């Protein structure tokens, strides 16, 4: 059984409509009863029976006690709606995935635009809001830097206390050099770490200002923009909550390559080259990165 973290229903519906030559928009079923005794008997039988298996072949049972004749139709309606949602959403993914797999339409190498990709690896969640919080003036990065400086001060004090004192005592040159190095390091640690923090904060602010998305998933050579509306969990906590190997099904929408020199016919298109260059810098020593439009993320 798959557990979906991210599910792009629009893409699934698009694929499914092409596969099935149309897409079911609505399915309704209803019954009217005039005899109250018959109503109670028939409805009670339906609810306590294997309703889902009879209607949809899901092989599960829906059971419940009906307490009032007036509420029976409401109970049945809610149960039917829940079953239809499962069929039109999660089960639709299986139909699309099976079709793509059986027709060998899922690619793994030599990727190009419009290729369908299935990735299963440990990704990095890039959440600019989360990252900027780490490098804020009162964030975790500054706290860690201050803790590191305190540890160096403690080492320096311990080293000083262990030095023999008194006239004629010669301090070994290696110890003297170590003390001097630690003193300079501790003296400049606060200033250097604060300058680095400000530079990282400014860098991520600049990147976020030009990228149209605020959340991404990164693998070795894939950059996967994420839309909040398609998350099945709170998107503000996924960077912290989820880890480990995750499967991603999507298709290539752009290929960023540092070696390609394009001839531009206007003054606007070079701006997009700048955007591509910014995204490429998010990866270490990569000359080619594929932008993926995700269909689903799941465990």
Biggest sheet descriptor? 8 strands, mixed
User: Could you spell the SSE succession in H and E letters?
Assistant: EHHHHHEEEHHHEEHEHE
Distance between the termini: 9 Å
Regarding quaternary structure, how should these chains be classified? single chain
Description of the molecule:
With 299 residues, this protein is α+β, with helices and mostly antiparallel strands. It folds into three domains: 4-104, no CATH class; 107-123 and 219-298, no CATH class; 130-210. The chain is built from ten helices and eight strands. The protein is elongated, with a radius of gyration of 30 Å.
Chain-wise SSE layout:
Elements: E1 4-7, H1 9-20, H2 36-48, H3 51-56, H4 69-88, H5 90-102, E2 106-107, E3 116-121, E4 124-127, H6 128-134, H7 140-161, H8 173-210, E5 215-218, E6 222-225, H9 238-241, E7 246-257, H10 269-280, E8 288-298
Parallel strand pairs: 2-3, 6-8
Antiparallel strand pairs: 1-8, 3-7, 4-5, 5-6, 7-8
Short description:
This protein is of the alpha+beta class and 299 residues long. It has ten helices and eight strands. Strands 1, 2, 3, 4, 5, 6, 7 and 8 form an eight-stranded mixed β-sheet that branches.
Give the tags:
299 residues, alpha+beta, 10 helices, 49% helix
